[in-house]
Amino acid sequence: MELKIEILKAFDSLELRRKNVECRLDQLDATGFTNPEREGSWSVNQVLAHLSNAEFGTVRYIQKKMQGMNSLGQRNFSSKIRAQLLKWFLNSPVKFKMPKKMPEPTNDLSFSELKMQFDKNRAMLRELIESFPQEDLDKLIFKHPFAGRFSLHQTIVFLENHYKHHEKQIDRILVSVENRG
């Protein structure tokens, strides 16, 4: 039960991060959310759409993998090292290309629609965590496109680090758009 509590704490931390970003963005004029930092880069709405798509895809992937738990390996030293390396890379100033399997984010949704999408995704994620079998919490349930397989806890921690990585991008975009007037 202890590991499930740790996973829920990681989820709560992820959710708090999202709420803080949304609270900050709620204070701004949403009309600038579709303007990119520079030509060929993403807007705030595109970054949020990417984050939402990544979370939705992660939940769907885990739901699919839950149907074949017996074939999954256990969390091990290698997955711990890969998780730490991924965290380090996401916290570094290095920029990454989005995995080709991910849909290119668009400006089609408004900020309020994106918030509703996040609400749905997070409700699905919380339900998945709460319903996840206790005896399978150490299974390598998620496959990151570059870093390999992770347990549920490692996956939630990755999602927060991913969100934090893009939070810096959102801040850069907002400064750039504000400076252009």
Describe this structure in words.
The structure is a single chain. By secondary structure, this protein is mostly helical. It has helices at residues 2-26, 44-65, 77-91, 111-131, 152-180; strands at 142-144, 148-150. The chain has a single domain (2-180), classed as dinb family like domain (Four Helix Bundle (Hemerythrin (Met), subunit A)). α2 runs parallel beside α4 and α3 runs parallel beside α5 (152-180). The longest helix is centred in the last third of the chain and has 29 residues, at 152-180.
| Poorly predicted runs | none
CA-based gyration radius: 17 Å
Beta strand count = 2
CATH H-level homologous superfamily name: dinb family like domain
Please tell me the total number of domains.
1
List keywords for this structure.
single chain; 181 residues; mainly alpha; Four Helix Bundle (Hemerythrin (Met), subunit A)
TL;DR of this structure?
By secondary structure, this protein is mainly alpha-helical. The protein contains five helices and two strands.
Topology:
Blueprint: H1 2-26, H2 44-65, H3 77-91, H4 111-131, E1 142-144, E2 148-150, H5 152-180
Antiparallel strand pairs: 1-2
